[in-house]
Amino acid sequence: MSTSLGLYQSVKLHQTLSPQMQHSLNILQAPAVELSTLIQQELLANPMLEISEEKPLENPDALSIDQWIQEEEKWYEYLGSNFEGFQRSVEDEKRRQFFFDSQTASESMTTELSKQLALVCNDKTLLKAANHIIGNLDEKGYLRAELEEIATDLGMPYSLIEEALSLVQSLDPPGIAARNLSECLLLQLKAQGKENSLEFRIVKECLPLLERKKFNEIAKQLKVSLKQVQEAVATIRSLEPFPGSKFGNDEKEKIILVDLIIVREGESWKVYFNEELMPRLRLNHYYKNLLSDKDKDPSLKNYLKEKMRSGLFLIKCLRMRENTLLRVAEAIVESQQEFFQHGPGFLKPLTMSEVAKKTGVHETTVSRAIANKYVQTPYGIFELKYFFNSGFQKTTGEFVANQTIKESIERLIRNEDPQAPLSDQQIVEALAKMGIKMARRTIAKYRTHLKILPSHLRRKS
């Protein structure tokens, strides 16, 4: 057998986002708290920008925004540069990049994991599923969505979602995307090559005893010495129970600002953008007039041109963000009429692909638009992604959302007899009377997701 070394050339096409497009997507995805901070920074740094005191358009649609943009972009004829091609100053670029690099821990975690994922997987379908899983991690790095729900949302086989989960769980830090503490610790031990260790057996077989520090019982059950158990426990204690904390800020108090307000007007529901939260910006007329003055210093005019380009870009991105959020929210209202008529118990199944079709935007745009966005309704404040659910078909033929089922389980347990709490099988039977047929295993998963103990641990004497 002979071997040879050689150099080979290959041509690959890669689709990359321009810096302008990347900034636009960052603005679309940014939560209201961070975007409000960015606007204040821009107002301080850019003399061409000011807050508009004019009464905003009522519920502006895409056409009115496009018309407004066309008027503003007439200035580009004077500036001698098209919208997509302008270059910001190094100072502006550093300031913007610093802001977006200072995003919340969950966003940093998502970005970091997605980067790792792109290096180890080139299968588009698997990448889509894995990124969806990453998007469903909480701040502590745990996966809180059920695999069945993800499979339904994406219209993919359950086996492929399992493969995607294994892929995400292979990323750094070890323990990421675990569904419970046991799995989190086992993943870390596995990464250390300790699958056959005493530590692995203790976590897998004796975690309830470990939590209660019943070391003697663990030693007896596993037929090892107490000293061996104590040494193994010391190793287990060195593991990270919250792998997402590596990215920082997971203990930081979360401030919620509402982007949208939904109110009832007559027989219909109206969606409004929270104008008090996000002031409207415009170009300063005084400085615009200076640009038209032929006698002004050329260096001053060049400086103002640069600031105008930057200001127009931000204004356009903010208007497009507002328009996208309004369209997505209106599609949600249209799809979740029963929720708005009767309350949370009437949530219907809804996927991002359905909303994408209704709004005429890409599914990934919907995903970015709803990320960390909140809406005020007559029933309280909800995260936009709350309205997206897979679901089950009732015996009546009607579809019911998973979130509604979880709320029904919570209600049943809240009203149970403390001395005779409902078993998972009894919950199955109670839901069946409501026309919802579910397996006991699924009920157990939902109960665990809701952080509700099994019946024997809920019993009160």
TrEMBL record:
Segments forming domain RNA polymerase sigma factor 54 DNA-binding: 302-460
Domain of life (superkingdom): Bacteria
NCBIfam families, per the entry: rpoN_sigma (TIGR02395)
Presence of the UniProt keyword Lipoprotein in the record: no
Family statement: Belongs to the sigma-54 factor family.
InterPro entries (alphabetical): RNA_pol_sigma_54, RNA_pol_sigma_54_core-bd, RNA_pol_sigma_54_DNA-bd, RpoN_core-bd_sf
Keyword field: DNA-binding, DNA-directed RNA polymerase, Nucleotidyltransferase, Sigma factor, Transcription, Transcription regulation, Transferase
Protein name: DNA-directed RNA polymerase specialized sigma subunit
GO cellular component: DNA-directed RNA polymerase complex
Ranges where the RNA polymerase sigma factor 54 core-binding domain occurs: 103-287
Matching PANTHER family: RNA POLYMERASE SIGMA-54 FACTOR
Organism: Methylacidiphilum fumariolicum (strain SolV)
Stored Pfam families: Sigma54_AID, Sigma54_CBD, Sigma54_DBD
Recorded coiled-coil stretches: none
A GO MF term: DNA-binding transcription activator activity
One annotated GO biological process: DNA-templated transcription initiation
